[in-house]
Amino acid sequence: MAIKINPQLTPTKLLPRIERLFELSAQKILNLDKSWKPASGTPVFTVKGRYTSRGWTEWTQGFQFGAAILQFDAMGDDRFLELGRRNTVARMASHVSHIGVHDHGFNNVSTYGNLLRLMREDKVPALQPERDFYELALKVSGAVQAARWTRIANGKGFIYSFNGPHSLFIDTIRSLRALAVAHQLGHVLMGEQDRRISLLQRLVEHAETTANFGIYYGTGRDAYDLRGRTAHESIFNLNDGNYRCPNSQQGYSPFSTWTRGLAWALCGYAEQLEFLEMVPDRELEPLGGRKAITQMMLKPALATADFYLENSCADGIPMWDTGAPHLHRLPAGYLNRPANPHNAWEPVDSSAAAIAAQGLVRLGNYLQAKGDPATGRRYKQAGLTTAHTLFGEPYLATDSRHQGLLLHSVYHRPNGWDHIASGQRVPNGESSMWGDYHARELALLLLREARGEAYLTFFDYTRRF
Known about the structure:
mainly alpha
């Protein structure tokens, strides 16, 4: 195991770091809101400490406005509630009906979903017209996401990526939260001749297809089959629905592991296991039953968690890809040391660490609740160890002139989109919307536990449909 797990850490012991994070977060949210011009598009990542846009898809706007909502939740400052609410109403409608992306869970659950969650938790007044507005947005978002459907040879299917109907992205496992929320609100996707299509069924089938084709289990599927390794993209033949090959858009190769994709899978399956606990047996029985569905999701969650632990540095931070071409130039045994974001050969990815840490904490909590305290504690302590690293320097951006919150995030290494500072050979020192958002989300999850508040979930844990 590469991560050196600190068994003594608790959310309470992390409170000083969490409070410092949210103190800095407040400044950075207000800075960006004041300086950003909506005509410039959506902020994506920083260049020399200033947020810039990168036209690919508008998948990060929900993180921009959702960050303010998380800030309010953490610190109770009404300025941030108003900022998040105002921008959600004014600027997120097009994302609700966006038929061209697989990112509804990122954009809309981070905004409309967080606002609705605050209402159900009695943190803001539950005014009925406003609540109805958020619920309608989430229903439509889940249905639009589920409509991006490719059927495969076994009769099941997946939500296809913006690359087209042949393409299954590992990222989308975390966007399933859009289908989950919409289903919990009682919504369905209406098809031709008024066919009612279950959002829960599509959620389960997408999770199963991803588990079968996007994640490896050491069973000899190909020469690079290591348990827990993930492929960023899985390609299918649209003529007959058969799987063809792995691929990668943002990782180094189809046969190495892009660690942010690994983190999406780990976090996505962990929170879907939590969601399943709220789904009654009668809903799951036609889809294979609770036991089978739970095992289908637990298998990839455990595999990806173990792979993350084995392939991250001692402080919980991974390199951007486990097969990056210059890793062999790093000092021998580099995984057994704290990550060096300023090394000359390959970048680390703090955003992958923030996503994975939340997955490890959630998976650990889930396993402990299910009667496996030893394994659950191991994962949770690994998540807390990673959080401890992220919530301090050199990852926490303490310079008020830097608009980012979490430093040393990587966006798209193959495309060369990440800024490389003068005198450096690889990108470092920059931030991303998703890295900043997930650092805040991780911090809020731990802050609530330390305060003894309700457990943070994207779904309504008080309702069983």
